[in-house]
Amino acid sequence: MSKLSTEARRPNRGRADLPRLRRMSDAQIARTSPAELADLPDDFWEDAEVVAPEAKQAISLRVDRDVLEWFRRTGPRYQTRMNAVLRTYMSRMRKRDVVENKKGRRQGAA
Questions:
Q1: Could you list the residue range(s) of the whole structural domain that residue 86 is in?
Q2: Euclidean distance between CA atoms 87 and 95, whole angstroms
Q3: Sign for the pseudo-dihedral over CA of 21, 26, 30, 36
Q4: Is position 43 within any domain?
Q5: Confidence bin at 39 (pLDDT 50/70/90)
Q6: Please, are residues 63 and 85 in contact by the beta-carbon 8 Å criterion?
Q7: Strand, helix or coil at 60?
Q8: What number is the average pLDDT over the span 64-79?
Q9: Which of 48, 78, 87, 101 has the fewest Cβ atoms within 10 Å of its own Cβ atom?
Q10: Which CA distances in Å does 8 have to 16, 25, 35, 91?
Q11: Contact at 8 Å (CB) between 78 and 71?
Protein backbone atom coordinates (compact mmCIF):
# COMPACT_ATOMS: atom_id res chain seq x y z
CA MET A 1 0.00 0.00 0.00
CA SER A 2 1.40 3.38 -0.95
CA LYS A 3 1.92 6.19 1.52
CA LEU A 4 -0.61 8.33 -0.37
CA SER A 5 -3.40 5.79 -0.09
CA THR A 6 -2.68 5.37 3.64
CA GLU A 7 -2.72 9.15 4.13
CA ALA A 8 -5.90 9.52 2.08
CA ARG A 9 -7.74 7.09 4.35
CA ARG A 10 -6.66 8.68 7.61
CA PRO A 11 -9.48 10.86 8.99
CA ASN A 12 -8.59 14.48 9.57
CA ARG A 13 -11.47 15.51 11.82
CA GLY A 14 -13.24 17.46 9.09
CA ARG A 15 -10.32 19.75 8.35
CA ALA A 16 -8.67 19.79 4.94
CA ASP A 17 -4.94 19.08 4.84
CA LEU A 18 -4.26 21.82 2.28
CA PRO A 19 -0.52 21.17 1.85
CA ARG A 20 -1.23 17.50 1.08
CA LEU A 21 -4.08 18.40 -1.29
CA ARG A 22 -1.84 20.83 -3.19
CA ARG A 23 0.64 17.98 -3.81
CA MET A 24 -2.08 15.69 -5.22
CA SER A 25 -3.20 15.57 -8.84
CA ASP A 26 -6.87 16.06 -9.74
CA ALA A 27 -7.04 12.33 -10.53
CA GLN A 28 -5.71 11.42 -7.07
CA ILE A 29 -8.19 13.75 -5.41
CA ALA A 30 -11.06 12.29 -7.46
CA ARG A 31 -10.01 8.72 -6.54
CA THR A 32 -9.97 9.49 -2.81
CA SER A 33 -13.09 11.67 -2.70
CA PRO A 34 -16.31 10.40 -1.09
CA ALA A 35 -18.68 8.65 -3.49
CA GLU A 36 -21.38 11.31 -3.05
CA LEU A 37 -19.08 13.87 -4.72
CA ALA A 38 -18.54 11.78 -7.87
CA ASP A 39 -21.57 12.99 -9.83
CA LEU A 40 -21.53 16.70 -9.03
CA PRO A 41 -22.11 18.86 -12.12
CA ASP A 42 -19.10 20.87 -13.32
CA ASP A 43 -20.77 24.15 -12.32
CA PHE A 44 -21.71 22.97 -8.80
CA TRP A 45 -19.36 25.39 -7.01
CA GLU A 46 -19.88 28.28 -9.44
CA ASP A 47 -22.16 30.31 -7.16
CA ALA A 48 -20.56 29.20 -3.88
CA GLU A 49 -19.83 31.91 -1.33
CA VAL A 50 -17.32 31.79 1.49
CA VAL A 51 -19.15 32.16 4.78
CA ALA A 52 -17.02 32.91 7.83
CA PRO A 53 -18.18 31.08 10.94
CA GLU A 54 -19.40 33.16 13.82
CA ALA A 55 -16.99 33.57 16.71
CA LYS A 56 -17.89 31.38 19.65
CA GLN A 57 -18.11 32.65 23.19
CA ALA A 58 -16.72 30.54 26.02
CA ILE A 59 -19.21 30.10 28.85
CA SER A 60 -19.77 27.95 31.88
CA LEU A 61 -22.89 25.87 31.41
CA ARG A 62 -24.43 23.43 33.86
CA VAL A 63 -26.04 20.42 32.21
CA ASP A 64 -27.30 17.12 33.56
CA ARG A 65 -24.56 14.52 33.91
CA ASP A 66 -26.28 12.03 31.59
CA VAL A 67 -26.68 14.69 28.89
CA LEU A 68 -22.98 15.58 29.03
CA GLU A 69 -21.92 11.92 29.07
CA TRP A 70 -24.12 11.17 26.06
CA PHE A 71 -22.65 14.03 24.01
CA ARG A 72 -19.10 13.10 25.04
CA ARG A 73 -19.68 9.53 23.85
CA THR A 74 -20.48 10.89 20.39
CA GLY A 75 -16.77 11.67 20.01
CA PRO A 76 -14.58 14.66 19.29
CA ARG A 77 -16.28 18.01 18.77
CA TYR A 78 -19.19 17.07 21.01
CA GLN A 79 -19.46 20.72 22.11
CA THR A 80 -19.98 21.71 18.47
CA ARG A 81 -22.86 19.23 18.30
CA MET A 82 -24.32 20.62 21.52
CA ASN A 83 -24.19 24.08 19.95
CA ALA A 84 -25.93 22.74 16.82
CA VAL A 85 -28.75 21.29 18.95
CA LEU A 86 -29.17 24.62 20.75
CA ARG A 87 -29.09 26.52 17.44
CA THR A 88 -31.80 24.25 16.00
CA TYR A 89 -33.96 24.81 19.08
CA MET A 90 -33.42 28.58 18.85
CA SER A 91 -34.36 28.60 15.15
CA ARG A 92 -37.56 26.67 15.76
CA MET A 93 -38.57 28.92 18.64
CA ARG A 94 -37.92 32.01 16.53
CA LYS A 95 -40.12 30.62 13.74
CA ARG A 96 -42.85 29.82 16.27
CA ASP A 97 -42.62 33.35 17.67
CA VAL A 98 -42.97 34.85 14.18
CA VAL A 99 -46.07 32.75 13.50
CA GLU A 100 -47.60 33.69 16.86
CA ASN A 101 -46.85 37.38 16.31
CA LYS A 102 -48.55 37.26 12.88
CA LYS A 103 -51.60 35.57 14.42
CA GLY A 104 -51.72 38.20 17.16
CA ARG A 105 -51.61 41.07 14.64
CA ARG A 106 -54.40 39.51 12.59
CA GLN A 107 -56.60 39.02 15.66
CA GLY A 108 -55.89 42.57 16.83
CA ALA A 109 -56.81 44.01 13.43
CA ALA A 110 -60.21 42.29 13.38
A1: 65-109
A2: 12
A3: positive
A4: no
A5: confident
A6: no
A7: coil
A8: 96
A9: 48
A10: 11, 13, 14, 37
A11: yes
- The CA distance from 35 to 30, in Å, is 9
* Mean pLDDT, rounded, for 61-89: 96
Whether the pTM exceeds 0.85: the reply is no
- Higher-confidence residue: 17 or 11? 17
SS3 readout for 12-58: CCCCCCHHHHHHCCHHHHHHHCCHHHCCCCCCCCCCCCCCCCCCCCC
Grade residue 91 by pLDDT with cuts at 50, 70 and 90: very high
CB 4 within 8 A of CB 28: yes
Under the banding of pLDDT at 50, 70 and 90, the label for residue 25 is very high
Check whether 50 has a pLDDT greater than 80. Answer: yes
- Domain count for the chain: 2
